Amino acid sequence: MKVRLKKYGPVLGIVLAAALVPVLLPNPYLLRALGQVGLYMLLGLGLNFTLGYVGLFDLGYIAFYAIGAYTAAILSVHGWSFWLCLPASIAVALVFRLLVGIPILRLRGDYLAIVTMGFGEITRLVLNNLDGLTNGPRGLPRVGETIYPPGFFGMTLYTNTHFYYLIFAAVLIAAVLSLRIEDSRIGRAWVAIREDEVAAELVGVPVAELKLLAFVISAVFAAVAGCLFAHWERFVTPESFVFWESILVVSIIVLGGMGSVPGILLGALILEGAPLLMQSVLQQWIMYRYFLFGVLLVLVVMFRPQGLWASKRRQSELLEEHS
Fold first, then answer.
1. In this predicted model, which residue has the larger pLDDT, 320 or 190?
2. Within 13 Å of residue 218, how many CA atoms lie on the same side as its CB?
3. For the whole model, what pTM was predicted?
4. What domains are defined for the chain?
5. How does pLDDT run across 145-172, given as a tens digit for each residue?
6. Of 198, 264, 268, 279, which residue is most buried, by most CB within 10 angstroms?
7. 155-156 vs 140-141, strand pairing mode
8. Neighbours of 228 (CB within 10 A)
């Protein structure tokens, strides 16, 4: 019991603190800002399966966030309810993830990063030019404004507070699932692949299948985040899914700690939450935010490469490398 509390305690504490914000600090801007942080927590937890657990450098992850958001938006505009859009978004993202993952997961390192980056940009350009389906650069408005608005046990979800709690409920579920999978045989096999793919394959680990599984699970998290984003904002546009967003999610994992679930939550709070708070409180510093974050990432890589809140497994790996 103590071990479980020690492992799950930080995650439960962060989500519980987020749940108390609307009660203790009922500020509309703060609510919107932390809701956005919650979406990036969800994206970071998803990318952690490929980058954190398996070590696959995926720079096109935001494409599946876009696919989930646009699938939900298109179906919602055509009268689908939120609870039907959600599994449909997951299904479409999974199909594209499989189509991309099967041929490219034989690549490693920089080659994999370049190919995934290219897929992310291709996705954004297709969404930008497919006017008949996505309305092009003008975006899709009136998402969720159907005869079946988002609801939960008879309660219609339409306020920022409603979606705020829905987002952090998804973060809690995603974090607990991540911790459970991390402790499973699959999670240990992923770490073995990350440490030495050749050695893992020689001892009987099905490397190709497990890499594809991590790739697919990460798409589920991205699709859920995309569906929530589309219904919360009630508007989607290709400019919400630029390459910088993928870099931001990667930076969240590097800053918080690769493979560390609480570290990713902390990284999202710092990298996504700090600029939004700076914008409202320290407006004169907002133009320097990228410079400050660049300095912060360099310092972390130099003096704490395992991240601000590293997992014990990652810390031991780095100690073995330097010994």
1. 190
2. 33
3. 0.92
4. 24-322 (1.10.3470)
5. 655 556 665 556 667 888 899 999 999 9
6. 264
7. unpaired
8. 25
